[in-house]
Amino acid sequence: MEIIKNLSYNEFIALLLTYTAKSDNDFDINERYMLTKKVDFEDLKKAETMIRSLDKDQIMEIIKEAYSYFSKDKVKKVQIYSDLEEIINSDGFVHENELEILNTLKEFDKSIHN
Length: 114
Prior knowledge:
Blueprint: H1 2-5, H2 9-22, H3 29-38, H4 41-53, H5 56-70, H6 74-89, H7 96-113
Helix pairs in contact: 2-3, 2-4, 2-5, 2-6, 3-6, 5-7
């Protein structure tokens, strides 16, 4: 996908966290606050635009491709999971859509790193 070539690590994190936070259809104030601590405004705007213009399968494909690239760096890999778990837990509820994203990423990780 052409988008991947131009996606920075920070833009990837913005996309992953924003998509996850919105996946339960309840973009809680705590999730919003967490996002503003993790990503800058421009990356957040770009993530929002991507989410509005792409369907779920396209977004997950971008996330998987970007993850496969950025997770080669062990420090970034740990940070990706840490940030993801933090946004999932930020509103005090773990929704099945959020877990689905986390589990999809974990399964994908097993498939590319084994």
